[in-house]
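Hi, here's the filled form for the chain we discussed.

Project: internal
Contact: R.S.
Residues: 82
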Amino acid sequence: MRGALKKDGANVSYRTVANLLKKLNYTLQGHFKRSEGKVDHPDRGAQFRYINDQAVAARRARRPVISVDTKSRVSRESRHRC
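And the returned structure, exactly as it came back:
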């Protein structure tokens, strides 16, 4: 918006643009990706207890138990945008 106003010859600051948008009921939001792990799922503890209980039961029954790390890896590009 500031660029468009500048093209038309208006020299305004980003703060002025922010105030204008606010008056028009717009909300300002930055471009970012929420990092994994910032907000835990409300049932996170219950999920881990369930998985652990299943693993214990399998081991008692002499069945194999495997652990899989399913975390996604964040690319360097997305880390630099934050």
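Let me know if anything looks off before we file it.
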